[in-house]
Amino acid sequence: MSDIYFFGYGSLVNDLTHGYSPVHRASAQGWRRAWRFTPDRKVAYLTAIRAPGHQIDGLIAPVPPEGWATLDLREHAYERLPAAHEVTHDAEATDIAIYAIHPDRLHMPDEDHPVLMSYLDVVLQGYLREYGTEGATRFVATTDGWDAPILDDRAKPIYPRAQRLDPAERAFVDDTLRALGCKVLV
């Protein structure tokens, strides 16, 4: 039996946050990313939203059958959806899943449900390392909801898989948020 792959488009692009390998660059057609929260979580995260004519970059990696329970727990606010027909890649994967929050459960982030800086750092670190500055910039352009408040929790990260950024990665994140005019809560 072959492994089923996930398509990651947020924190799963940062392979420091999981042990699945090998990873392969991929893109999903008909999707955009958006910052949203759901009643299942106290803070906002990324979700994939169907968007005909759009495309998002990410990674795929195989998950052995015994690994899905752990990954589903990590992604507990999301539905695991079949996506093989929407994902382009150079791997030998034939079965691919994408995690997305059900549209009926999506809410706009607010000050009571902000984006965590520690989560945003992990996501952009993954894109910088996998796709370079151009790819990280493309991530920003293909993600909606940058008007969401961002809680600066870098000093005491709330996100359980927080990573330390090097100075260039941190500068990219900070410069991007300034350029977007994001509201950062301290």
Explain this structure.
- The protein is of the alpha/beta class and 186 residues long.
- It has one domain: Hypothetical upf0131 protein ytfp (Roll).
- The chain is built from three helices and ten strands.
- The chain has helices at 68-74, 117-141, 167-180, and strands at residues 4-8, 24-36, 45-63, 79-82, 87-89, 96-100, 115-116, 143-144, 150-151, 184-185.
- Strands 1, 2, 3, 4, 5, 6 and 8 form a seven-stranded mixed beta sheet that branches. Strands 7-9-10 form a three-stranded parallel beta sheet.
- Strand 9 (150-151), helix 3 (167-180) and strand 10 form a beta-alpha-beta unit.
- Helix 2 (117-141) crosses helix 3.
- The N and C termini lie far apart (49 Å).
- The model has no long low-confidence stretch (mean pLDDT 95).
Strand and helix layout:
Layout lengths: L3 E5 L15 E13 L8 E19 L4 H7 L4 E4 L4 E3 L6 E5 L14 E2 H25 L1 E2 L5 E2 L15 H14 L3 E2 L1
Parallel strand pairs: 1-6, 2-8, 7-9, 9-10
Antiparallel strand pairs: 1-3, 2-3, 2-5, 4-6
Helix pairs in contact: 2-3
**Beta-strand content bin:** 25-35%
Let me know the CATH homologous superfamily.
Gamma-glutamyl cyclotransferase-like
Mean pLDDT figure: 95
Into which percent range does the helicity of residues fall? Answer: 10-25%
Question: pLDDT below 50 for ≥5 consecutive residues: which ranges?
Answer: none
Compute the CA-based radius of gyration: 16 Å
